[in-house]
Amino acid sequence: MATKSLVLVHGWGGSYHDTWQAPGIDQIFADTGCDVVGIDLLGHGTADKPHDPDSYADLPGYLLDALPSAPSVVVAFSLGALTALRAALREPQRFAGLVLAGIGDGVFEPHKPEETARLIAGIQGTAPADDNIARLFGQYAHQEGNDVAALTAILKRPPATRLDT
Questions:
Q1: Which of 9, 54, 114, 123 has the fewest CB atoms within 10 Å, i.e. the most exposed one?
Q2: Domains in the chain: how many in total?
Q3: Is residue 19 domain-resident?
Q4: Domain limits at 140?
Q5: Are residues 18 and 92 in the same domain?
Q6: Judging by DSSP bridges, how do beta strands 95-101 and 35-39 pair with one another?
Q7: Percent of the chain having pLDDT more than 90?
Q8: Could you say which DSSP state residue 122 is in?
Q9: Buried (b) or exposed (e) across 54-85, using 16+ Cβ within 10 A?
Q10: How far is Cα of residue 108 from the mean position of the Cα atoms in its chain?
Q11: Do 27 and 71 have their domain in common?
Q12: pLDDT of residue 1
């Protein structure tokens, strides 16, 4: 029986290493016989980190290009989960299954530019002191190894107008 690939995708500001390798989650899956594949989304980890928001307009396409050729089970978190969902809607034959965490019902709501501005204020250190979410995004963006300009560009990327784009 062929080994199934299990693809692990992190969220915004994370990386395959920080989210899945460092805590040993990838090894737990590998110990069950899965062929674990880690993907760093554009702007994160070992991937290229462009500073132009337009570079991030097609994150689902980036993920599809990085997937193994055989259908895989994809486990993804936050931005990775939203990206995987959009990729699966575009090319469902590439997926044997999806486990999506950390996206909530906001996935069905239209883009809110004021929310993006709020998070960017957190990254820039200009958010109100009581805006804990914005400040948390700021702390996460400034973790060692992150490219703050790339993470900001991701937030400024052109919004998808439909879930299946």
A1: 114
A2: 2
A3: yes
A4: 113-155
A5: yes
A6: unpaired
A7: 87
A8: H
A9: ebbebbbebbbebbeeebbbbbbbbbbbbbbb
A10: 17
A11: yes
A12: 46
Q: Please report whether residue 62 resides in a domain.
A: yes
> In the structure encoding, which two tokens stand for residue 98, read together?
């999806």
- Cβ(155)–Cβ(51) below 8 Å: no
Does 145 lie in the same domain as 85?
no
Contact (CB, 8 A) for 56 and 43: yes
> Measured over all CA atoms, what is the biggest interatomic distance in the chain, rounded to whole angstroms?
56
Task: Kindly write down the DSSP assignment for every residue of 63-117, as one continuous string.
Answer: HHHHS-SS-EEEEEETHHHHHHHHHHHH-GGGEEEEEEES-GGGGGSPP-HHHHH
| Contact indicator for 75, 84 with CB cutoff of 8 Å | no
Are residues 45 and 94 part of one domain?
yes
**CATH number where 94 lies:** 3.40.50.1820
Q: Are residues 129 and 147 in the same domain?
A: yes
pLDDT tens digits along 64-123: 999 999 999 999 999 999 999 999 999 999 999 999 999 987 787 877 899 999 999 999
Distance from C-alpha of 122 to C-alpha of 101, rounded to nearest angstrom: 23
Identify the CA nearest to 63 among candidates 87, 35, 90: 87
Cα(56)–Cα(36) distance, rounded to whole angstroms?
25
